[in-house]
Amino acid sequence: MKPSQLYALNESIRDLDYVLAAYYLELPKEADVVEKAAGMAMGQTIGTWVPVPGITDEMREKHMGKVVNIIDLPPCDLSTQVQTETAAYLIQLAYPVSNFGAQFPQMLVTLLGNDASTSAQVKLVDLQLPRSFVGEFRGPRFGIEGLRRLTGEPERPLLLNMIKPCTGFTPDVGAKIFYETALGGVDFIKDDELLGNPEFCPAAQRVKAYGKASDAAYEKTGHRAIYICNVTDRADRVLDNAKRCVEAGAKAVMVSYAAVGYSVVRALSESVGVPVLAHYAGSGPLFEGVASGLSSPFVTGLFPRMAGADLIMMNTPYGGYPLKYQKYIQAAHQMSLPYYHLKPSMPIAGGGVHPGIVERYVKDLGTDMILGAGGSVQGHPMGAAAGARAMRQAIDAAMARVPVEDAAREHEELRAALERFGRDG
Question: What are the residue boundaries of the structural domains of the chain, listed by start?
Answer without folding.
Answer: 7-134, 143-421
